[in-house]
Specification:
Radius of gyration: 19 Å
Number of helices: 7
Largest sheet: none
Number of domains: 1
Helix content: over 70%
Shape: globular
Order of helices and strands: HHHHHHH
Strand content: under 5%
Length: 212
């Protein structure tokens, strides 16, 4: 399925608008990031189908499902019976898990890229698959409010910008430059919030010891 370029402009603008709001809300650690992301990903799914970026189109389905799960996790503290949005704290991920996730992403890139290359008319299937594979890792980390989500998003945005430029998706490419900058700023912001949380935990521990 392909669309005429003129018919994609309104769709691209709307998809980018919702995703911009979603990304900014994620950077500020706001739960509203999830429903705005669901709308944006739905629009992007149609857009990418029309430009033969099938890995990206597939990725939007994954984003929609995981956004619904992330929305629930952030609001309930990860299923621990709590109801406020702040109950799932920002956490760190071990180096072992990050290395394993990165290796898995490389494997998925090669496997899915080959599949697209052999079975479809996909444009730049391996590059497109990099965006898919590392976005999956980044999204899973975001669902768990993991600090390391942001460097993974920076990798995704670094690859996505030239890919979208090559398909004439200029508004999307420009927006992803903004997303790259936002990922760096958000990484720093979340790290600061994590340090505050850790200080609070340490303080409570010291007070408990003093009482005992």
């Amino acid at each position: 399925m392909t669309f005429e370029p003129a018919s994609l402009v309104g769709l691209e603008v709307a998809a980018n608008a919702f995703n911009l709001v979603s990304i900014l809300l994620a950077g500020r650690n706001r739960v509203e990031t999830w429903w705005t992301g669901i709308v944006g990903c739905s629009l992007f799914g149609v857009l990418f189908l029309g430009t033969q970026l099938y890995a990206d189109a597939t990725l939007q389905v994954f984003f929609i499902v995981t956004s619904a799960i992330g929305w629930w996790r952030w609001r309930t503290g990860g299923g621990q019976g709590r109801s406020d949005a702040g109950d799932l704290p920002i956490r760190r991920t071990s180096a072992r898990v990050i290395v394993a996730a990165s290796a898995a992403a490389v494997g998925v890139t090669l496997g899915y890229g080959t599949l697209l290359h052999v079975l479809t008319d996909a444009y730049a299937p391996y590059v497109d698959s990099i965006v898919l594979a590392f976005s999956v890792v980044a999204q899973v980390l975001l669902m768990g409010r993991r600090l390391e989500t942001w460097p993974f998003w920076m990798v995704v945005n670094t690859v996505a910008v030239p890919l979208y430029l090559s398909r004439g998706l200029w508004p999307t490419a420009v927006l992803y430059v903004g997303f790259w900058i936002n990922a760096g700023v958000s990484w720093r912001h979340w790290h600061r919030l994590w340090r505050v949380t850790q200080s609070g935990v340490a303080g409570k521990g010291a007070m408990s010891e003093a009482v005992e």
